């Protein structure tokens, strides 16, 4: 404690102030001088003890801050009673909690990044390996022209899939980084759904799926048409893949609280174990197709929730799936 210059200066100042009183008391009588010196020593000792206690508490806070700096975030919020040190301790505790939460979020994000890079590497390495093998085989002079043309068709299909995958990953990265600037505008839901159906037309035709639209012509929502059409298109593709030769029904509902868009199919349904993970990136359920990547529904979820909407799925094996999109009315 005496290493602190302000404490030394305080004691020196007190001694300088008391010295004239000691001289006056000594001139009066020896007893008066002893009394004044004793009183001064008692006050200085009391102040010294109190200051030592406060510095002890400050050292404890310093030790706790050092532990926080070392990554140890344990701290008891009830160590102090009322007073200025208690306020300081409370503020340090709040900062400690925030740092701990930030460290946990950073660790989670680092793990997510590691998993994402691993998934992306796998998704790109598989078609690249396949294409390299086909290119090697095509270099053989004895290969028939028909086989060569088939290999070229397969390589073109793989390149198209890789381009779609890279574009989807870039969109997902922008959505997760909140770098997408949505441009909400009043949009009729029928035009939005027709645009989504055109995006999923190839899958609808490929799997022989019939679409039924039950939506009022004047039903309007305020949202970003481009991004929302892509979200609905991904859901429609998923329904088409799992409702081959079946039907996909699109319904719109409006009430005083929410606007709803419901997309349901009468296909094979979703395994209950897959439902909690359906909107996770790169998650492939038990009924996933061999060429499924597991990114479409995750992107739909990101797009809809980024516009203050919700996306839920209800399904039973053998009885189809029901995707419910809700936008709550904003109360001004």
Automatic annotation (TrEMBL):
Reaction equation(s) it catalyzes: ATP + protein L-histidine = ADP + protein N-phospho-L-histidine
InterPro entries: HATPase_C_sf, HATPase_dom, His_kinase_dom, HisK_dim/P_dom, HisK_dim/P_sf, Sensor_HK_Regulatory, Sig_transdc_His_kin-like_C
Keywords: Kinase, Membrane, Phosphoprotein, Transferase, Transmembrane, Transmembrane helix, Two-component regulatory system
EC number(s) stated in the UniProt entry for this protein: 2.7.13.3
Gene3D superfamilies: 1.10.287.130, Histidine kinase-like ATPase, C-terminal domain
Annotated SMART domains: HATPase_c, HisKA
Keyword ATP-binding: no
A GO molecular-function annotation: phosphorelay sensor kinase activity
Coiled coil (residue ranges): none
Residues spanning the membrane: 7-26, 32-55
Residues of the Histidine kinase domain: 119-331
SUPFAM superfamilies per record: ATPase domain of HSP90 chaperone/DNA topoisomerase II/histidine kinase, Homodimeric domain of signal transducing histidine kinase
Protein's UniProt name: histidine kinase
Organism name: Holdemania massiliensis
Entry-linked PANTHER family: SENSOR HISTIDINE KINASE RCSC, TWO-COMPONENT HISTIDINE KINASE
């Amino acid at each position: 404690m005496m290493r602190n210059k302000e404490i030394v200066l305080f004691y020196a100042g007190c001694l300088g102030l008391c010295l004239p009183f000691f001289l006056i008391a000594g001139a009066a009588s020896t007893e008066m001088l002893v009394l004044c010196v004793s009183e001064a020593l008692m006050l200085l000792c009391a102040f010294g003890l109190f200051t030592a206690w406060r510095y002890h508490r400050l050292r404890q806070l310093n030790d706790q801050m050092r532990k926080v700096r070392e990554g140890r975030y344990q701290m008891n919020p009830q160590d102090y009673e009322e007073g200025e040190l208690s306020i300081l301790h409370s503020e340090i505790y709040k900062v400690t909690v925030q740092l701990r939460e930030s460290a946990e979020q950073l660790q989670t994000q680092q793990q997510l990044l590691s998993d994402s890079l691993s998934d992306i590497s796998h998704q790109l390495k598989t078609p690249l390996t396949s294409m390299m093998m086909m290119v090697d085989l095509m270099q053989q002079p004895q290969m028939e022209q028909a086989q060569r043309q088939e290999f070229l068709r397969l390589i073109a299909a793989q390149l198209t899939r890789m381009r779609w995958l890279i574009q989807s990953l870039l969109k997902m990265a922008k959505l997760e980084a909140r770098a997408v600037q949505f441009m909400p505008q009043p949009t009729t839901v029928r035009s939005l759904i027709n645009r989504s159906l055109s995006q999923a037309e190839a899958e609808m035709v490929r799997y022989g799926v019939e679409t039924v639209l039950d939506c009022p012509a004047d039903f309007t929502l305020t949202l970003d048409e481009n991004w929302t059409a892509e979200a609905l298109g991904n859901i429609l593709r998923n329904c088409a893949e799992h409702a081959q030769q079946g039907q996909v029904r699109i319904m719109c509902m409006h009430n005083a609280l929410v606007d709803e868009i419901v997309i349901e199919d009468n296909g094979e349904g979703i395994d209950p174990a897959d439902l909690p993970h359906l909107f996770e990136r790169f998650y492939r359920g038990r009924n996933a197709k061999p060429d499924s990547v597991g990114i479409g529904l995750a992107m739909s979820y990101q797009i809809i929730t980024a516009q203050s909407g919700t996306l839920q799925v209800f399904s039973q094996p053998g009885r189809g799936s029901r995707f419910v999109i809700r936008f709550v009315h904003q109360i001004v």
